[in-house]
Amino acid sequence: MSLDRFFGWYPKYKKFKDNPTVKKIYEFLSEPESIDKMISACENGKPALSGIVQKLEEQFANDPYLTLSNNTVKQLIGSLIKEVLYDFGYIVNIQRVVSNSQVFSSATHYCKDDEKVKKILVRKLVIEDVSPLAPTEETLLEEEDAITE
């Protein structure tokens, strides 16, 4: 995955090569969390964009360097998604409706071709204690000291 590869594949977007927002959007799309959401959307029969569109619109809707509602910009974002998912073996399937967007009405659904996979996304599970009564290291040491006395 690289923005240079993207501009090599899609020369029609070269005018955006030095646009700082395009770089930020690409970085956002390339984050593991975004990739996970796009893949999950496809696995659930939705377009990849639908997994990240709300956050994308929140972060970039009022950007001074790029207008999300511009048709060329929307196509650019779709092509960026295609480039990001390429290494994970996802290929174009069909256009589908995007129901959770203020800007996009449709986007591409991708399906996985196992023979084209170059990278995999590894999910790590973490348990976090959210209880306000959870013991701290300090309280555990105090309890241990009380037991030994």
Report on the structure:
This protein starts with a helix and ends with a helix. The protein has one domain (3-120). The chain has 149 residues and is mainly alpha-helical. It has helices at residues 3-9, 20-30, 32-43, 53-60, 71-86, 137-148, and strands spanning 90-97, 106-112. The chain has a two-stranded antiparallel ribbon. It has six helices and two strands, in the order H-H-H-H-H-E-E-H. The longest helix is centred in the middle third of the chain and has 16 residues, at 71-86. It is 44% helix and 10% strand. Strand 1 and strand 2 form a beta hairpin. The protein is elongated, with a radius of gyration of 21 Å. The model has no long low-confidence stretch (mean pLDDT 91).
Strand and helix layout:
Elements: H1 3-9, H2 20-30, H3 32-43, H4 53-60, H5 71-86, E1 90-97, E2 106-112, H6 137-148
Antiparallel strand pairs: 1-2
Helix pairs in contact: 2-5
Question: Which percent range describes the beta-strand content?
Answer: 5-15%
Strand order of the largest sheet: 1-2
Number of helices: 6
Low-confidence sequence ranges? none
Kindly state the number of beta strands.
2
State the major sheet: 2 strands, antiparallel
Instruction: Provide the gyration radius in Å.
Output: 21 Å
Shape: elongated
Give the integer mean of the pLDDT values. Answer: 91
**Domain tally:** 1
Summarize the helix and strand pattern as letters: HHHHHEEH
Structural class: mainly alpha
| Percent range of helical residues | 40-55%
The separation of the N and C termini measures 60 Å
